[in-house]
Design goal:
By secondary structure, the chain is an alpha/beta fold. It contains 19 helices and 23 strands.
Length: 558
C-alpha cells in the first residue's frame, strides 16, 4: 500500500483520548473535529510553567544532505517516538506543519511514511487548522497597511524604495518573485517594486514559532523593520499603530495543534518554517508542551544538520532556553551512495566503494553536531535494496568516528522497527554526555558569525560578502542589532552554497549576496548563492498526481 492508503486504513482514536494519555483534559482542548485540537491558552500557560520545572529529555532528529533518493527524517522521528513508547518511555513527538508548496511541488507530503505516520494525514498536509493561511493573511495585511500609509500622505516619510516587507503565499509561484504594484493612476496606490516569499519563509511564521504569549507576539510584531524613511532611519511596523489588528488574526495560530501517530501516540504539530530559507523548527510552544507532558520529546529540524540543526541549536534553543540531550542523524545507504557518485538509477546495486566515499557527508554532519557539545546516534533508515554488507560497513564507519549507528525500520514495522534505535537513544540521552552550547557568541560582529558558520559547519575556506551586503550588515550593527544571531539561507542540496557540490565539499568560497533584517523574529538572514525565498514548481509537479473522489477521499498526496 502507498503511504496515504496506509493512513486511510488506520482507525484513529478520538483526540480527547490521545490528550488523556499525557494528562490533558477535554476542557483544555479546542476541538477541530474529532481528531484535531488546539491547546487552550490556560492549558498552554500551565504547560509552559511545567516545562520549566519538569522537562523531558529533548531529542533532535536531523539528517544527511538531501538527495533525490530520499532520507526519511520525519518517518524516523515518528517511528522513534513510537519505538520509545514501545520500550516504556512516555514520549511525545513535536513536528512542523507541512507547507502546501512542497505538497504540490517536488517533495510531497510531510507526515512521515509507511507505518510511521501522523494522522489525519490529508488534513495535516493540506489546510490543517488554518495556521499557515492565517499567517499569510496577517503578513499581507501588514503589506496592505504599509502601502495604504504611502497612499494616505506618508506621515512617517517612508522611502518606498527601501520597503523590505514582502507579501507571501503558501505555494511555489515563481511568477510572483518580483512584481510591480500600484499601477493604474493616483487612486490605485504608489507604484513601486514588490516581492513575494513563500509563507513558511515569512518573518510572521518565524515570529509565531518563537513567541510564547500574545504579549510577546505583539512586541515582536512591533519590532519588525519595514523600511527606512528619507533620513535613512529604520521604520518599524509599530510606528503604524496597527499591531493589535495583526495579533488578532494570529490569536489562535499561537496555540499548538495536537494530533496522533498511527500507533495512537500524541504528536504536537505546529509551525512550519523552511530550513533552507528560514529557521526550520517547529514552534517553541509545541516543544514546551511536549516537554511538559513527556519523559522524552522527539523533534526534528528541516533538511540536513548544516541547516535545520544548526538553526535549531543556534537560534531556537538559545532563544527558548532549551537543552537537548542527544541528536539523531538520519542516513540512508541510497543517499550516501548518491553522495559517493552513484546515479539514482543504479542505487539498487551493491556498491561499498561509493558508500564509503559518500560517508564523508555523514561524517561531516557527525563532526558538526559535536561542535555544539552534543552526542549523536546515526539512524540507518532501511530500504529493501540495502545489503547486509552495506549496513555493516556504515556501522563500522560510524564507529570509527565515535558514533553508534542503528538500523531503523519504522517505515515497514512502525514502533516495533525502531526499538533498537530507541534503546540506543535512551542510553546516550541518559549518559550525561550532552553539554549543549551554541556555535558562536552573540557579541561577535555579524560578519564573524556568518563566517564562523560558513567555515566550521559548511567547511568553506572563506566568505565573499557582496559590497551591498557588507554595507547593510554595518548599518544593522549601527542601528543596535549586532547581537542578533544569524539565519543563513542557502541550498539544501549541498553542505555548500552550490547544489552541484555533493558529498563533503571543501576549498570553496561561500558567497553572501544579500542580507535581511528580521528584528521581530530576532535574527539576521544572510542569502547565499542562488537561493530564492519563493520556490518554483518543477517540470512535473506532485499536483499532477493528486485527486479527490465524490466521497471526499483524497489520493496521490504522497
Amino acid at each position: 500500500m502507498t503511504d496515504i492508503e496506509i493512513a486511510q486504513s488506520n482507525k484513529m482514536e478520538q483526540i480527547t483520548k490521545i490528550a488523556a494519555k499525557i494528562d490533558i483534559k477535554e476542557d483544555a482542548l479546542e476541538m477541530y473535529g474529532p481528531y484535531k485540537a488546539k491547546i487552550t491558552f490556560a492549558e498552554l500557560k500551565t504547560l509552559q510553567e511545567k516545562a520549566k520545572t519538569n522537562p523531558g529529555k529533548l531529542i533532535l532528529v536531523t539528517a544527511v544532505t538531501p538527495t533525490p533518493a530520499g532520507e526519511g527524517k520525519s518517518t524516523v522521528s515518528i517511528g522513534l517516538a513510537d519505538g520509545l513508547n514501545k520500550i516504556g518511555k512516555k514520549t511525545v513527538v513535536a513536528l512542523r506543519e507541512p507547507s502546501l508548496g512542497p505538497c504540490f511541488g517536488v517533495k510531497g507530503g510531510a507526515c512521515g511514511g509507511g507505518y510511521a505516520q501522523i494522522v489525519p494525514m490529508e488534513d495535516i498536509n493540506l489546510h490543517f487548522t488554518g495556521d499557515i493561511h492565517a499567517i499569510s493573511i496577517a503578513n499581507n495585511l501588514i503589506a496592505a497597511l504599509i502601502d495604504n500609509h504611502l497612499q494616505q500622505g506618508n506621515e512617517l516619510n517612508i522611502d518606498p524604495r527601501t520597503i523590505s516587507w514582502k507579501r507571501c503565499v503558501d505555494l511555489n509561484d515563481r511568477a510572483l518573485r518580483n512584481i510591480t504594484i500600484g499601477l493604474g493612476g493616483r487612486l490605485q496606490g504608489v507604484p513601486r517594486e514588490d516581492h513575494f516569499s513563500i509563507s513558511v519563509a515569512s518573518e510572521i511564521m518565524a515570529i509565531i514559532c518563537l513567541s510564547k504569549t500574545i504579549s510577546e507576539l505583539k512586541q515582536r510584531i512591533d519590532s519588525i523593520v519595514i523600511g527606512q524613511n528619507y533620513a535613512r532611519e529604520n521604520v518599524t511596523f509599530g510606528q503604524l499603530k496597527c499591531t493589535g489588528a495583526i495579533a488578532s488574526l494570529l490569536k489562535d495560530v499561537i496555540k499548538p495543534n495536537l494530533v496522533q501517530t498511527l500507533e495512537k501516540n500524541p504528536a504536537f504539530v505546529h509551525g512550519g518554517p523552511f530550513a533552507n530559507i528560514a529557521h526550520g523548527c517547529n514552534s517553541v510552544n509545541a516543544t514546551l508542551c511536549a516537554l511538559a507532558t513527556g519523559d522524552y520529546v522527539v523533534t526534528e529540524a528541516g533538511f540536513a544538520a548544516d541547516l535545520g540543526a544548526e538553526k535549531f541549536l543556534d537560534i531556537k534553543c538559545r532563544s527558548a532556553g532549551l537543552n537537548p540531550s542527544a541528536v539523531v542523524i538520519v542516513a540512508t545507504i541510497r543517499a550516501l551512495k548518491m553522495h559517493g557518485g552513484v546515479a539514482k538509477a543504479d542505487l539498487a546495486k551493491k556498491d561499498c566503494a561509493a558508500l564509503e566515499k559518500g560517508f564523508e557527508n555523514l561524517k561531516t554532519h557527525i563532526e558538526n553536531i559535536a561542535k555544539f557539545g552534543l552526542p549523536a546516534v546515526v539512524a540507518i533508515n532501511k530500504f529493501i535494496t540495502d545489503t547486509d554488507e552495506e549496513i555493516e560497513l556504515i556501522k563500522k564507519l560510524c564507529d570509527s568516528v565515535g558514533a553508534k549507528a542503528v538500523l531503523s525500520e519504522g517505515w515497514e514495522k512502525g514502533g516495533n522497527g525502531t526499538t533498537d534505535l530507541a534503546k540506543a537513544v535512551c542510553e546516550i540521552a541518559e549518559s550525561g554526555k550532552a553539554n549543549y552550547h551554541p556555535l558562536y557568541e552573540l557579541d561577535l560582529p555579524l560578519t564573524e558569525k556568518i563566517s564562523k558558520i560558513a567555515k566550521e559547519i559548511y567547511r568553506a575556506e572563506g566568505v565573499d560578502f557582496a559590497p551591498a551586503a557588507l554595507k547593510k550588515l554595518q548599518s544593522f550593527e549601527d542601528a543596535g542589532y549586532k547581537n542578533l544571531p544569524v539565519c543563513i539561507a542557502k541550498t539544501q542540496n549541498s553542505i555548500s552554497h552550490d547544489p552541484t557540490l555533493i558529498g563533503a565539499p571543501k576549498g570553496f568560497t561561500f558567497p553572501v549576496r544579500d542580507v535581511q533584517l528580521y528584528v521581530g523574529a530576532g535574527f539576521v538572514v544572510a542569502l547565499a548563492g542562488d537561493i530564492m525565498t519563493m520556490p518554483g514548481l518543477p517540470k512535473t509537479p506532485a499536483a499532477l498526481n493528486i485527486d479527490v473522489d465524490d466521497n471526499g477521499c483524497i489520493s496521490g498526496l504522497f
